[in-house]
Design brief:
Elements: H1 3-14, H2 22-45, E1 48-51, H3 58-67, E2 73-79, E3 86-91, E4 97-101
Antiparallel strand pairs: 1-2, 2-3, 3-4
Helix pairs in contact: 1-2
Length: 106
């Protein structure tokens, strides 16, 4: 997935209300996993950078499997040499994944 498509998918994800109904929840989760897989591939190819650098994006899945959805952890990723386009991806308390553009408050 190229970065433009990734940004479009993130925008689409953030316009879904996962609490509206089961179809919305399933679409949200499906899209989140698509984004996550794309990020794993981009990370392995060196297209994006991940913060904190001591952990890889795969650590997020490890947390979900081993610690469950009550654990909260967020990665920040950005395209190399395009630092103003930063996003965070993570798992919130109660297990709802997030993939949001960073605001100035972050």
């Amino acid at each position: 997935m190229d970065y433009k498509t990734l940004e479009e998918k993130i925008e689409e994800l953030n316009n879904i209300n996962p609490n509206a109904n089961n179809v919305s929840w399933e679409r949200y989760m499906s899209l989140y996993h698509l984004i996550y897989e794309a990020l794993l591939e981009m990370e392995s190819k060196g297209v994006i950078s991940i913060f904190p650098k001591e952990k890889s994006l795969g650590y997020l899945e490890e947390l979900l499997i081993n610690d469950g959805p009550e654990f909260s952890y967020t990665f920040i990723f950005w395209k190399r040499f395009r630092f103003w386009k930063k996003y965070k991806i993570g798992v919130c308390v109660r297990g709802l994944p997030i993939c949001r553009p960073l605001s100035t408050d972050d």
